[in-house]
Request: fold
Amino acid sequence: MIKRARYRLLRHLPGPRGRRYSRKFNTILALDDFESAIRYTSGKTCIDLGANIGHYTQKLAQFAAEVIAFEPDPWTCAQLRANLAEFTNVKIENAAAGTREETVLLWRHSQFNDNPLKYSTSSSLIADKFDVIDHDQAIEVRQINFIEYLFGLDSDIGIVKIDIEGAELDLLEALLDRPDLLSRIDYVFAETHERQIPDHAPRVHDLRAKTGRLSRPHFNLDWH
Reply:
């Protein structure tokens, strides 16, 4: 509550400081929105794209009928499986989510081998996302066509959480072209990465405008 009040006040500062605190404030609101959505969609199927080691997968699994968690990195996916072993309602896919079925390169942080638990959150399909990505090392991972995957599910979806380190725009834009799929989803929470990838900024601006006009699903693009 103290952070919320502080960020609410400091977001009105001029310039970069104000924008930074505005992002922090919006992130807190997104987490609140997420917690409410979990309870509102209790008993439905939820999807966690970019599950990492499963912190938010666990939260979803406490209320969802089923959670489908995607994590492409084999090391991280092993930790995810271990952390979610007690949950019988979680299905884990060792794959990236994209718009095509193919084998892709996953780029790890340059310090991944030193501390994989800490740096696994920086792994990305976008080679130029961070200066700290190791451009000399990458691993091949399976990518599924998430649009087709979603079409093949026989249940409505409570929540789709998308935290895939820069690869979210292609996926979100493809999803917006499928009103038949959107009508089956209650909430979409996604992190965008235009600060790390400045070329994404115009697309993110357009995406926010389009999602803001939709009544269903509820989009929150301030995930962290």
Observations:
- The beta strands are 45-49, 66-70, 90-93, 96-98, 102-109, 133-145, 157-162, 185-190, 218-220.
